[in-house]
Amino acid sequence: MGILGRRSAWHAALALGMTCALSTALWAGGSGFGDDDHDHENEGPAYFGFVKDTNGATVADAKVTVAIKDRGGVITRTDALGAYRVPGFGKEIDPKEVLISCEKQGYKQVRVFRRTAPDADPKVPIETECTMQRA
To answer: Per the structure, how many domains does the chain have?
Structure first.
């Protein structure tokens, strides 16, 4: 394989990798995720966000708990880009009662920051970022 052939293969691999990374980032909070056959009229806003360390780097495979105060919740994990997403609870659940926490071995949670106002349009997903510090 000549230099030109190797370079073309490298460019194709780079383009494919970037496409996958960007589509995953868009999928994390983008519309269209989980829009299958759900009853959207009775569903509240979805919850999504990122788990990052104190330097701003994303934390993959972190455990994210999205819980309704004094009830129960859902546990998910972040993807390779540190993103998570949970579908909305019923619209009778007040987003102010939804608490998000993050865990990962070797880290401790230092901050949870909700970027989207809890009283925003129920069709708008609520973004919450967790910041973790190495323990």
So the answer is: 1
